[in-house]
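Fold this sequence, please.
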Amino acid sequence: MSHSLQVRVYYEDTDLAGIVYYANYLKFIERGRSEWLRAAGIDQAGLKAATGTVFAVRRIEADYLAPARFDDLLTVQSRLTSHSPARVVMAQRVLRADTPLFEAQVTVVAIGPGGRPVRLPQGLVAALQ
């Protein structure tokens, strides 16, 4: 299952050198994961209200390949690479046209109301099948 999201670079996303500040790529891919879940039919706010379950990044491995600049139109690609009963691993990329700028492998877990890992919600498991 994969998903693409368009993101525009705003002035607030850039640093003194005029390029996207490194931490903002993490925000871009977070948006990509949220929209990936939405496309899979998962309402995160509803899930939290009903069960107390939220998603948290457990691990991220990132490569910064080339800079993005003010007003660039970027594409955030999110693709499921594997999953288990309690975690999802995704490959995410940020591109400008066909040029890769940032790549990450992200492991996300479901966290219950007590702050401990729990099984993935059944709605997400069904969407991943």
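The beta strands are 2-8, 54-64, 73-83, 87-96, 99-111, 117-118. Residues 22-39 form the longest helix (18 residues).
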